[in-house]
Structures are given as C-alpha cells and as structure tokens.
Design brief:
The complex is a heterodimer of chains A (about 140) and B (about 110). With about 140 residues, chain A is an alpha+beta fold. Chain A is about 30% helix and about 30% strand. Chain A has 4 helices and 5 strands, in the order E-H-H-E-E-H-H-E-E. In chain A, strands 1-2-3-5-4 form a 5-stranded antiparallel beta sheet, covered by helices on one side. In chain A, helix 1 packs antiparallel against helix 2. Chain A starts with a strand and ends in a 9-residue tail after the last strand. By secondary structure, chain B is of the alpha/beta class. Chain B has 4 helices and 5 strands; from the N terminus they run ββαβαβαβα. The N and C termini of chain B lie far apart (about 30 Å). Classes of the chains: A alpha+beta (about 140), B alpha/beta (about 110). At the A-B interface, helix 2 and helix 4 of A face helix 1, helix 2 and helix 3 of B.
Chain lengths: ~140, ~110
C-alpha cells in the first residue's frame, strides 16, 4: 500500500497535539501495534515542539509535516523555516539543551532516535531545519501461533 | 490537560489527566509554582494515573520542580505511570532521582 499526506500548520504549541495525532491516525491504516503508534506520536511531538520552541523561538512561523507510507514503512518529515541549529552534533547529545531557562530536558533528539528506526536532520542557520523520521512497523519479533 | 492539586501533610499531590506535552506544561508549571510559593509544601508527588502521553517537555517540567524542591531539602516522587510514560521517564534516567510507586497510597507511605 502506498499513501501520503501533507499538513501545514502555524507554529503554535496547541498544534503539537494536533500534528502528532494526525500522523498517528495516518499510520494506523497499516495496523501498527499500540506501542509502535505511541513511538511515532512521541517522536513527532518532539520534532514539532523543537520547531515551535527552537526553530521559531515561540514566535510566528509555518511548520510543514508530511508522511509517506510504503507498505509498512513510515517516513515522516517535519520542516520549519526558522533559525536553524548552529551546532547539530551538540543539539543531538542527550540532556543538552540550548534553552535551560525554559526547563527543556534536552531529551528531544534522544527520544526521536530511540523511538524511530532513524532520525535524519538537515539544518542551515537562518534557513530552517528538516527532520526526517523513519519507522518500519512489524519489526518486533512475533512468532505466529 | 487537567491538573488538580491536593494536600497530604507537607506533600503537594499533582494529579494529572490528559497529555503532558509542551503546550500543557506551561500552564501547569505556573499553577504548581504558585502553590509552592504560597504554601509551605516540602515534597511533591506527581500522580500520572490519568496521563496517557508524555514527551520530553514533561520530563523538563518534572526536573524543574525536582530542582526547586530538592534545593530546600524536599523530595519529589511519582506514581501510577503507564508503561509508555515509564519508557520516556527511564530514557532520561529520571527514576534514579525520583522514586516511582505503583499507587498514590504507596507513594505517600513510602512503600
């Protein structure tokens, strides 16, 4: 089964829940497990939250979320046209945050990497950031009875 | 996200219902800190019974309250986490700082 979706939303914190639920509902058509759907929801939430807080620094902006399903492989892309990430390697370190004053845990990228099969980031200061998250469903070891 | 604050001795119980994300934590943080500043609470217990989703924003909010409370010699604990929330919790190693109990009653008695 091949399918795709695209969603464009203003950078607002109330859209974080909307975005993750839309992607989860889209992915549901290939019957992932509850845990797999939960992983996708959490990873998408992290990427969209990063766009709101870091990409647009809680200001106005547009976030574009698209997803492609090819058989049981989901690829989600989250794009912002914000400030970009100056030091990507540092940003991806567990517990590192550029905004400790906002009580950020610094776990966003760690969660995206752990909950998805892959997390690819392309960023350019002043231009924005694109995060691509991939997960193939049904990878857990299940033995048919 | 609905947040209900309850008092049990010197412990502030934070009962949460809904999804604990960046949007939810901003309002929640203000509500908890107002209570901490105006009443003499020593400890906080986060009750996750009604929480079906948490991301790293939730972790940040809990760690922030941990910092405030532990600086004054108090304790932060958590209870009733489902397996999904626990997974996020453990990824940040929060359980090494914040003891996790199966129920509010167990947490209050320290069982």
């Amino acid at each position: 089964m091949d399918n795709y979706m695209k969603l464009e939303i203003p950078s607002k914190s109330q859209n974080e829940a909307f975005a993750r639920v839309v992607v989860a509902a889209f992915a549901a058509q290939v019957d992932p497990t509850i845990d797999e759907i939960s992983d996708v929801k959490t990873a998408v939430s992290e990427a969209v939250t990063n766009a709101v807080i870091h990409g647009y620094e809680n200001g106005p902006g547009t976030i574009v979320i698209s997803a492609i399903l090819v058989d049981s492989r989901l690829e989600v892309t989250i794009i912002d046209y914000g400030v970009g990430i100056a030091d990507l390697e540092q940003a991806r370190e567990p517990l590192y945050t550029s905004k400790p004053e906002l009580e950020r845990s610094g776990m966003g990228f760690t969660i995206m990497e752990n909950f998805m099969d892959s997390c690819h980031v392309v960023t350019e200061p002043g231009k924005g950031t694109t995060v691509t998250l991939v997960k193939t469903f049904g990878r857990a070891d299940v033995t048919e009875a | 996200m609905q947040v209900k604050l309850k008092k049990a001795g010197s412990t502030l119980i934070v009962q949460m219902v809904g999804e604990l994300d960046h949007h939810a934590v901003d309002a929640m943080r203000k509500k908890i800190d107002l209570k901490l500043n105006h009443e003499d609470f020593r400890n906080i217990l986060f009750d996750f019974y009604g929480v079906n989703f948490m991301d790293s924003s939730g972790l940040g909010m809990i760690l922030g309250r941990y910092k405030i409370v532990s600086e004054k010699g108090g304790k932060v604990s958590a209870c009733s986490l489902n397996s999904r929330v626990m997974r996020v919790f453990e990824m940040a190693g929060l359980q090494t700082k914040i003891p996790v109990y199966s129920s509010e009653q167990d947490a209050l008695t320290g069982a």
